[in-house]
Specification:
By secondary structure, this protein is an alpha/beta fold. It has helices spanning 33-37, 44-66, 85-102, 111-122, 162-172, 180-187, 212-228, 234-260, 275-288, 297-300, 305-316; strands at 2-7, 12-19, 23-31, 75-81, 106-110, 130-135, 140-147, 150-156, 264-268, 291-293. Bound molecules: adenosine-5'-triphosphate, magnesium ion and fe (iii) ion (FE).
Length: 338
């Protein structure tokens, strides 16, 4: 089954064609990052307009890359939630029109389920159940993937997402948006012990976490140094911050493995590209005999292929939409209703 998959939830317009949920035939992405950079973050209105400009050409390019004709597409899938509402609506409307014109099923896909499904592309033998650490620009959570379409959130951040914090700290250090990857690079060789960072403990669910205190503490440190005219040792601060995020995520991922008894840990989302987090996960899972799945960096950030992968399993589960499909800025992936 060949699925044309559309993703436009944030600042990447992406169109892919994926076969049977596992094989990428083409994965076309038009990133708007450079445009938003001058504002230090994504400007929703600009994002929507750029999606409109890019989407049709990308779909044409996807067909050209694969040599497929329109008649050889079996379904159209689209990210319908969560994300920037105007941006999502561009993809949803394009997908509705395409499904209608091609007379094929329309498959709505939750963006975070898509991030998790990137693992099916990277590891063709991977099947649920498994545990997934989702760390992206807007989400940080531990998810028990009981089945392809049945996912349970075990815990996660109560305030900011890990990616947001990386971007905020990077921005204050003068790195261009989105600064997560630049901060990661700057941390290489840094001494994480120079700047002590708080590790907040929350009452209640031990798998819940909070990043706002850590973020504020890094922000204050930078501001105070600025006021006193002191130089921040950037590699050391980046290493300390990355280490603190890592120290919050990795032990909880191990706890989630213990709680669920799962023997496989997958990671998903843009922050899963972080080198320190990847190294720590490798170390800790190896020590426990747990299989670790980490998609290549190209599949960690937003892309269309991950939407096509999840769409296949949504289709098999009968989760098809009609022309009344809408987009939603927020929507849980647990027990979602269209
Ligand atoms: P969501 O998926 O929650 O809706 P999003 O789609 O904006 O949010 P992604 O595209 O999955 O998020 O990830 C982007 C985030 O990943 C950004 O915050 C970016 O800084 C961060 N990121 C990318 N590479 C790295 C890295 N090496 N280290 C830390 N953060 C990184
Ligand atoms: Mg993005
Ligand atoms: Fe994303």
């Amino acid at each position: 089954m060949r699925i044309l998959a559309i993703e436009s939830s944030c600042d990447e317009t992406a169109v892919a064609i994926v076969e049977d949920g596992r094989r990428i035939l083409t994965d076309c992405i038009a990133s708007q990052v450079a445009l938003h950079r001058e504002y230090g973050g994504v400007v929703p209105e600009i994002a929507s307009r750029k999606h409109i400009e890019a989407i049709y050409g990308l779909a044409e390019q996807a067909l050209e890359n694969t040599g497929l004709t329109r008649g050889e597409l079996d379904a159209v899938a689209v990210t319908y939630a969560p994300g920037l509402i105007g941006a999502l609506l561009v993809g949803v409307n394009f997908a509705k029109a395409a499904a209608l014109a091609l007379d094929v099923p329309l498959i709505p896909v939750h963006h975070i389920k898509g991030h998790i499904a990137a693992n099916y592309l990277a590891y063709p033998d991977l099947e649920p159940p498994f545990l997934c650490l989702v760390v992206s620009g807007g989400h940080t959570m531990f998810v028990d993937v009981e089945d392809y379409t049945k996912l349970r959130i075990l815990g996660g951040t109560r305030d900011d997402a890990a990616g947001e914090c990386f971007d905020k700290v990077a921005r204050l250090l003068g790195m261009p948006y989105p600064g997560g990857a630049a901060l990661d690079r700057a941390a290489q060789g840094g001494d994480p012990s120079r700047y002590p960072m708080p590790r907040p403990h929350l009452s209640g669910n031990p798998l819940d976490l909070s990043f706002s205190g850590l973020k504020t503490s890094a922000v204050n440190l930078i501001h105070n140094a600025g006021q006193k005219g002191e130089q921040i040792v950037i590699p050391d601060l980046c290493a300390a911050f990355s280490e603190a995020v890592c120290g919050m995520l990795v032990p909880r991922a191990m706890l989630a493995l213990e709680q669920t008894g799962r023997k496989t840990l997958a990671v998903a989302g843009g922050v899963a590209a972080n080198s320190r987090i990847r190294a720590a996960l490798q170390r800790e899972t190896a020590a426990r005999g747990v299989r670790l799945c980490m998609p290549p960096l190209s599949l960690c950030g937003d892309n269309g292929a991950m939407i096509g992968a999840q769409a296949y399993y949504e289709y098999l589960a009968g989760n098809i939409a009609d022309q009344t499909l809408n987009a939603y800025a927020t929507r849980s992936m647990e027990g979602e209703a269209l």
